[in-house]
Every structure is written in C-alpha cells, then in structure tokens.
TrEMBL record:
Name of protein: Iron ABC transporter substrate-binding protein
Pfam families: Peripla_BP_2
Family statement drawn from the similarity comment of this UniProt entry: Belongs to the bacterial solute-binding protein 8 family.
Gene source species: Desulfosporosinus nitroreducens
PANTHER family: MOLYBDATE-BINDING PROTEIN MOLA, VITAMIN B12-BINDING PROTEIN
Length: 374
C-alpha cells in the first residue's frame, strides 16, 4: 500500500507540474502557435468603426487592397502572410515592400486585387487566414459582408489623408501590431514616422513664406504614368518641408491635371519631375521645346528627379526619402547635414529591414539633376 501511495503521489505531482507550465508550443504552416496562456480573445475597433472580435495573436494573415500588404510588412508581419493578390505578383517598379520581401510572390493567389476589384471570397478562404486586413474596403457594410461570406474576421485599415498620412495610418499600424503580436514594433514604426515628420518640419520652421522659392512637381504617377501636366496639391514631400508648392493655390488636395499654360504663369523656381513619367516629358519636350525653355527653372538649371512613390497607394518610405532630397535642394542650408542617399537607406532599413536606394536608383535614376533636351 505504501508503494502504491508513493506511485500515486509521484504521478499527481508530475501532472501538476505539466499543467503549471501552460502546455507547450506546437507549430503549423505559417508560424508557431502560441501557448494556451498567450492566446486571448480581443475586440478591435477598426478604421470603419466596426468592432471585430478575434483570437490574438494570429498566425496567418492576408492583406487585400492598395496599401494593406505594405503596412503588414512595416509591422514585421511578412512571415505570417499566407497569400497575396495577383497584382502584387506582377513586376511593379517602386513597390519597396515587394523589393524587400520578394519571396511573397511565391505565395498562393488570393484574387486579382487592384483598387476597383471585388475581393475573391473563395480564394481568401482557401489559404485559411486567421484575419483579413483590408485597406480600401473601409465601407462598413462591405466589410461586414466579406466577413459574413468568409467566416473570417475582417479588419479595415486606412492611410487617412494622403497629404499627411497622419493618425489613421498610425492607428492602422498599431491595430496590425496588436493583432499579429508585434505591438512594440508597430509603436516603434509610428514613433519613427512621427520623428522624421517632426525633423523635416523643424528644419524650415523659421523661414518666412515670402522668402521661400516656388516649386512644382510634374509627371506624377497615378494609376499609370503621366506628363508634366500631372501634379499633386499638398504633395507630401513638399508639405513635410514646408515648401511653397504653387499647386496648393488651387485649394485642391491630391492629384491635379493642370493646363500647361498655367505652369508658365506660375513659373516655379524649382522643377521636380517624377521619374515614372519622365519619359513622357522628354517626348513632349522634343515636340515643344520653346514651352519648356521659357521656364526659369530650366534657364537656371534647376530641374531634378524624384522617385515615384504612388504605386498601389503611397510607399511612405519613398515619400519621406523624397522629402529629404527635395529639402536638400530647396533649402540647402537647413539640410546641410543630410546625405539624401544615406538617409533614404536608413528609412528603408528601418521600415523594411533592407537598404533599397540602390534598387530605386537602378529603376528610376535616383536623386539627380535633369537636363531636358540633352
């Protein structure tokens, strides 16, 4: 009886010890399954104002719509992605997150993708994600419908005002972090973006508006390449540095197609050209050189190249890189301690884990002075 009692006590203690450890982690496709003690139900209020309940941290994610996948990679969630849109698999120069994570293209397709397409519920369900992040489907009813049809939690994200990105973007990053178990990383990304925005603004804060040079950016890419008439009001790189963007006087926000003659009346001191449409500008120059030669920016050799950042919604990293380069050109004294190339690689490294300026230089010519007609 004593031996049996001792054996019973031994087995009981062993069982208690195992229970106290909370179980062991097992693995599945897409990552490590957290222990039972780590998993918890959480209610998230997304950018469509919806309350979404899901078990966090998740292990398998998909991102639907322009910009959604980019935000997941910023939060270091690329390894959790189990499928991507077909449009992400195509060669798309300038999508920095796809340059940093090329293996994402090997994942199964979750539908066509694109700004005007409807999510493919069957394809989404087939890759068995724990959550569906959506970035343009911010309509509450549509998000609810997608969640009901797939049976998978749908969380709506947003970049907010594209001229500043701002609080909606920061909320989106923090929501992703809390769902994928990367809260600290998301907080660090938000802090880094705010730090750069503050630094850019501070450098030119004391310059009176009347003393600032007039600037214009042409050939801005938006759903394809465009010529010099394509520009942007409240252009983020200019807005960050407080530059005097002549297009802002229109009172508009975002992409604007102007009459070319308007550019002559504005006659900016500095002319920047988006590399995505530069070829169209050179073609137009050959047809009408007198128009371009009438601009003081050309007369004074002040025409510069910028890297396109509007590609499946803004590549925020490149937008900041452009801001530091434009600042160096327009406000050389205020940006004298900045090397735009090194700063660009710092930004890419922090947000995406890889210095990407060399790739941007290869694809778009990088930061340099342009000589139209030569």
């Amino acid at each position: 009886m004593k031996k049996l009692m001792a054996l019973f006590l031994t087995l009981t203690m062993s069982l208690l010890l195992l229970t106290g450890c909370g179980g062991t982690a097992s693995t599945k496709e897409g990552g490590t399954v957290p222990t039972t003690a780590q998993v918890q139900k959480q209610k998230i209020t997304d950018l469509a104002g919806r309350d979404v309940e899901l078990t966090v941290p998740v292990q398998r994610v998909v991102a639907v719509g322009p910009g959604a996948l980019r935000l997941v990679t910023y939060a270091e969630g690329a390894s959790m992605v189990v499928g991507i849109e077909e449009t992400e698999k195509k060669p798309n120069l300038g999508r920095s997150y796809m340059l940093a994570y090329p293996d994402l293209k090997k994942l199964p397709s979750i539908g066509q993708g694109g700004p005007d397409t409807v999510p493919n519920e069957e394809s989404l369900v087939s890759v068995k994600p724990d959550v569906i992040f959506v970035c343009t489907l911010v309509d509450k009813d549509k998000a609810d419908q997608l969640q009901a049809k797939t049976g998978i939690p749908v969380v709506a994200l947003s970049y907010g005002d594209l001229a500043t990105f701002g609080e909606n973007l920061y909320r989106s990053l923090n929501i992703i972090g809390s769902i994928i178990g990367k809260e600290k990383r998301a907080q660090d990304v938000v802090a880094y973006l705010k730090q750069n925005e503050k630094d850019l603004a501070h450098r030119t804060k004391g310059i009176p508006e009347g003393e600032k040079a007039k600037v214009y950016v042409g050939a801005v890419s938006m759903k394809g390449a465009h010529g010099i008439e394509s520009t942007q009001a409240k252009y983020p790189p200019f807005k960050y540095i407080g530059a005097k963007n002549v297009v802002d006087e229109t009172g508009k926000n975002g992409t604007v197609m102007i009459d070319k003659e308007k550019l002559i009346s504005w006659d900016p001191d500095y002319l920047f050209l988006d590399a995505g449409g530069y070829a169209l500008v050179t073609e137009d120059y050959k047809k009408n050189p007198a128009f371009y030669q009438s601009l003081q920016a050309l007369k004074n050799d002040r025409v510069y190249n910028l890297i396109p950042f509007n590609n499946y919604s803004p590549n925020i990293d490149t937008a900041y890189a452009n801001a530091y380069y434009a600042g160096k050109i327009i406000f050389p004294e205020q940006f004298k301690n900045i090397d735009p190339i090194k700063k660009s690689d710092e930004i890419y490294q922090f947000l995406l884990g890889k210095p990407l300026y060399a790739e941007m230089d290869r694809d778009f010519g990088g930061f340099k002075k342009l000589e139209l007609g030569k």
